[in-house]
Amino acid sequence: MRVLYVFRSLAVWGGIERVLVDKMNSLVSMYGYEVYMLTTCQGNHPIPYQLDNAVHLEDLGIQFHLQYRYRGLKKLWEGWSRTKRFERLLSERMKEIHPDVIICTTADPVFSITKVKGEIPLVVESHSICVRTIGVKGVRQWYAARVLLKGLKKVACLVALSEGDANEWRKLGIPVQVIPNIVHLNDGSFSSLGQKHVIFVGRLDYQKRPMLMIQIWKELFPRHQDWHLDIYGEGEQKQALQNVIDSQNINIHLHEPTGQIFEAYRNSSILVMTSLYEPFGLVIPEAMSCGLPVVSFDSPYGPSSIVTDGKEGFLVENDNNALFAKQLEKLMDDVSLRLEMGCCAVERSKRFSAKEIIPKWKVLFDCLASA
Fold first, then answer.
1. What integer is the mean pLDDT of 280-301?
2. Where in the chain is CATH 3.40.50.2000?
């Protein structure tokens, strides 16, 4: 089987990047697939995760983001010309690679790929949720959503990460299957759950809502001044968060993303997630595999597909900050409860291992290639 991934770049410490690298590595090691990835904007950026040498990686050098240096007609011209160049180069490389299946994410130019792929089946991985991908916020977003939908009508399959999101895509008449993310799980020791550290891992942006976590922490800290909140991530809100942290003295520590995140999990006792929406929530099973219970808002649609409320942790009604603080405090106060839920968390996390998830992709690829 020869599969071709199309993606923007493997250049940041991100969840999608980690999933794609783990998935490509697993397809090579478990089934001996020939795996290719064509990027559009990799440039000279190093790959943050370890990619198997058998995976063929090539950058087309489109640099779509450079169009945003311009305004008006020049910006439109740059976008159009880069799209045409992408379509031409992709068509040329596909004729040389002869893939059995093409895979991309909704962040990539799906419509362009459908124009040049011929009869090769295209699979689109949705790493967002339908209502955010197709949501209309203005004329430009409306147009982009219409173009994307036109392309999605021509794909062989869209893969959603949860049943809740899959049902939203199905309403649009798009063929959908549900395959959860493969998760890079802990292969070392577990947390003792005795450390008085709560950990938050994610992009520092509007979706993950780290500022909301700080607000919740401010309510808890007067009663738990020996506890610490560790925030790992980078993003547009980083400086604002640092300013708030510096103005307070409530044991909050902001850390850069790290390749040793499992060590950070093992030095913590509870994972928290305050996302506005979460297609999957990769850090949840990662932390669970280290033995951490979880406190998360029940945001659409990922957390509830991973955590059972009251078993591996607590799912809290979205934006019920008082209940979130109450459930977090319950775990902070009770090490026995942390240990009980942590044991359940370890077992639950195994559902997302490569050996559980990759066979689902093999079944899909085999079906599409033989159709």
1. 97
2. 2-182+353-370, 197-352
**Residues 160-212: pLDDT tens digits?**
999 999 999 999 999 999 999 999 899 999 999 999 999 999 999 999 999 99
Q: Could you give the CA distance from residue 283 to residue 129 in angstroms, rounded to a whole number?
A: 17
The number of C-alpha atoms within 13 Å of 84 and in the hemisphere containing its C-beta is 6
The number of residues in the chain equals: 371
Q: Is 3.40.50.2000 the CATH number for 2-182+353-370? A: yes
Side chain identity, residue 160: A
Residue found by looking up tokens 């007609």 in the block: 73
Check whether domain 197-352 has CATH 3.40.50.2000, yes or no: yes
Provide the whole-model pTM.
0.91
CA–centroid distance for 237 within its chain:
18
Which amino acid makes up residue 358? I
d(CA 95, CA 84) in angstroms, rounded, equals 17
Assess contact for 3 and 101: CB atoms under 8 A: yes
Strands 252-255 and 270-273: unpaired
Nearest CA-CA partner of 342 in 370, 313, 371 = 313
Q: Specify whether the CB–CB gap between 333 and 341 falls below 8 A.
A: no
- Give all strands of the β-sheet with 294-297 in edge-to-edge order: 252-255, 228-232, 197-201, 270-273, 294-297, 313-316
Q: pLDDT tens-digit profile of 310-369?
A: 999 999 999 999 999 999 999 999 999 999 999 999 999 999 999 999 999 999 999 999
Give the pair of three-digit tokens for residue 354: 């490569």
Q: Is 351 left (phi over 0), alpha (psi -120 to 50) or beta?
A: alpha
Cα Dmax for the chain: 64
List % helix, strand, coil for the chain (3-state, nearest 5): 45, 15, 35
Rounded Cα–Cα distance for residues 268 and 254 (Å): 14
Sheet holding 56-59, edge to edge: 56-59, 34-39, 2-7, 101-105, 122-125, 157-160, 176-178
Cis before 277? omega within 30: no
